[in-house]
Amino acid sequence: MPTSPAVSVGPASGRGGVVDLGGLDARIAGCRACPRLVAWREEVAATKRAAFADQTYWGRPVPGFGPADASLLVVGLAPAAHGGNRTGRMFTGDRSGDVLYAALHELGLASQGTSVSADDGLELFGVRVTSPVHCAPPANKPTPEERDNCRPWLVEELGLLRPTLRAVVVLGAFGWQAALPAFAEAGWRVPRPRPAFAHGARVTLGRRPEPDGTEPASVELFGCFHVSQRNTFTGRLTPAMLRQVLGAAAESAGLATRPPRDRTRASDEPEPGTRRGTDT
Fold this sequence. Notes:
Layout: H1 21-29, H2 35-47, E1 72-76, H3 84-87, H4 95-106, E2 127-130, H5 144-161, E3 167-171, H6 172-185, E4 188-189, E5 202-207, E6 219-224, H7 229-234, H8 239-253
Parallel strand pairs: 1-2, 1-3, 3-6
Antiparallel strand pairs: 4-5, 5-6
């Protein structure tokens, strides 16, 4: 397990002092800004699940995962009580992560298709994964206040990724609602009225000119149903649907992908009329 970083009280402490993603990740992992989330994540880490009774839980906010020069960012509610809260890595140790990393691996954007622990050797290529809320919430439902408390972390992360970031996949309506204000605060132009979430949605976010007058590269924002068990078990989100969005975003980000293996299972194909819609 990684060593515990110095504890900070929340996103406001030390702002402006972060010069790299490593420093930001350490500050995120020490955040105690939301009392309800702190109490829940620490209770879960102490009581554990029987299947993981012999493991030391991370029990802290989960930082983003992936290279500092990523051109594609995946944003979605991620830390689960016995997933990221246990392992200390985004979408790691639960079935949502199994689905996400399998899709990235098939596209050639991850070194392997499984993500079981922080030391399992998984690498992402040109892709970073983060969350609008870094702590595992009770019932997987953060409050609006907790979402807003966590937003400055995402704003800082977007700022650090700005030189290379070209595309973003947002998983679920919660992530979409959290990401758009963060992009606006980080300097991108978000259309008004703000675009609604939909699976398959695509929105171009221009960036405000730099102080020297140069026009920075825009970012392509893609909507995708969340990789939750509710969506994947019911077929609302199939592997083919997920690969389609990730592949389009990777192309927009300038990342080379490989064609996924030929699939013949009917369950891998999206049902008619399920490509678009709203999701929580």
